[in-house]
Design brief:
Blueprint lengths: L16 H17 L26 E6 L5 E3 L2 E2 L5 H12 L6 E6 L5 H14 L4 E3 L8
Parallel strand pairs: 1-4, 4-5
Antiparallel strand pairs: 1-2, 2-3
Amino acid sequence: MNFQRGKSREEPEINLIPMIDVLLVILIFMMVTTTFSQMAELQINLPTADAEKSSEKPASINVAVDASGRYLVNGSPVANPSVEGIGQDLRRAAGGKAEPVIIINADAKATHQSVVNVMEAARQAGYSHITFATQAKTGK
C-alpha cells in the first residue's frame, strides 16, 4: 500500500562536479610542488691521440677459386688441392709475415666446399683474417 500518492521517488545520482574539483586541486598541488630541474648531462672528455696512422698495410694473400675447383694463390696454381696443400701455399705466400689478410675470390659457380677448404686451410695455417672479394652487379 502506497500512502504517498503525490510524492515521487527521486533516483539517486552521482554528482561529478565536486570530484572534478578535487582532482583539479590535486593536479595543481602536484604541479606546484614538483621541481622542474634538468637532468645533469654527462660530460665526457675523450682522450686525443697525436699519433699518425700506420702507413703499413697488412699483407694480403689473394686466393682464387674457379668453377671447376682449381685454386690460385697470388696467381700461382696450387699443386696439391687438399686443405693441407692449400695451407702450405698460404704459408709460402705469407713469407713469414704475421697475420696476413686472406682474400678469397670465388667464382659464382664454385662449390661451397671449395671455399670452405680455403677457409679451413687458413685456419690451420693460423690466419684468422679472411675476407671475400665481390663484384658489383652491372645494370640490366
